[in-house]
Amino acid sequence: MTQVDLNCDLGESFGRYTLGLDDQVIPYITSANIACGFHAGDPEVMQHTVDLAVASHVQLGAHPGLPDLQGFGRRPMKIAPKAAKADVKYQIGALEAFAPTHRLHHVKPHGALYNMAAKDYELAYQICAGIKEVDPQLMLVGLANSELIRAAKAVGIPYEQEVFADRAYEADGSLVSRQKEGAVIEDSAVAVKRTIKMLKEHQVTTIDGQVISIQPDTICVHGDGVKALAFVKQIHQALTAEGIDVVAAHVK
Fold first, then answer.
1. Cβ–Cβ under 8 Å, residues 202 and 2
2. Which residues lie closer than 8 Å to 66 by C-beta, 6 or more apart?
3. Res. 123: pLDDT tops 70
4. Is the pLDDT of residue 159 over 60?
5. Contact 33, 56 (CB under 8 A)
């Protein structure tokens, strides 16, 4: 049976504002990427999100981002690779403090840091090296076919190649910028159909109509949209109907 991990970015509330439907989405996913305080999340939110995930037997993952609360970590910043490495280690350690009896499962960079590292090998390498220094069994979750995956292989840490159910792709395999029209796929039926194709045929059609190869180990769904809960339910049900087992990956 084909298996796939279903991950979601969670714990992105901060202070007095609430973002996302975390408590409702968690029962339908297998891995949680929890914000660690740099782009979103505060100590109380981090603890609450860890508790929600543990209660639902969802794997815990650190979601480190750039130090940019105002921009939600989505604005590219000039950052030295070794500084990024230190920032990632710091954020992993912060999340570990809230889960003393549960080993973290993975690390997935957030937003601009993720997209920058997907194209910048040295940045990706230092991020992976930082992960290994914290725990060599931690899996990197990175954009399929990107420099993040290449770096994980070079550093020698386990990894999952990530695909996105509701994001459009460029011809080089990168995600279409959110600043461009069509970057986010709003039609859930279209998103589900694309996801099934990625899983069964290892292909995706890019925003300009090209067909490129892709390896899906884990699917990212977003829990902060207006129709987020309905979409997460729909994609989980569709995967199950296709005979695809939704389960968190484990280090081999």
1. no
2. 38, 39, 73, 75, 77, 79, 87, 110, 111, 112, 113
3. yes
4. yes
5. no
Task: Look at residues 198, 212, 220, 166 and name the one whose alpha carbon lies nearest to residue 2.
Answer: 198
Question: Which tokens hold the place of 212?
Answer: 């490129």
Question: Would you say 91 and 128 are in contact if contact means Cβ atoms under 8 Å apart?
Answer: no
Task: Tell me the pLDDT of the chain averaged across its residues.
Answer: 93
Query: Distances in Å between the alpha carbon of 104 and those of 32, 218, 221?
Result: 10, 17, 20
Q: What is the mean pLDDT of residues 109-125?
A: 97
- Of residues 166 and 82, more confidently modeled: 82
Cα 148 from Cα 116, distance rounded (Å): 10
Query: How many residues would you count in the chain?
Result: 252
Q: What is the CA radius of gyration of the chain?
A: 17
pTM of the full structure: 0.94
Residue 207 burial by CB count (10 A; 0-12/13-18/19+): exposed, middle or buried? Answer: middle
Tokens of 124: 């990706």
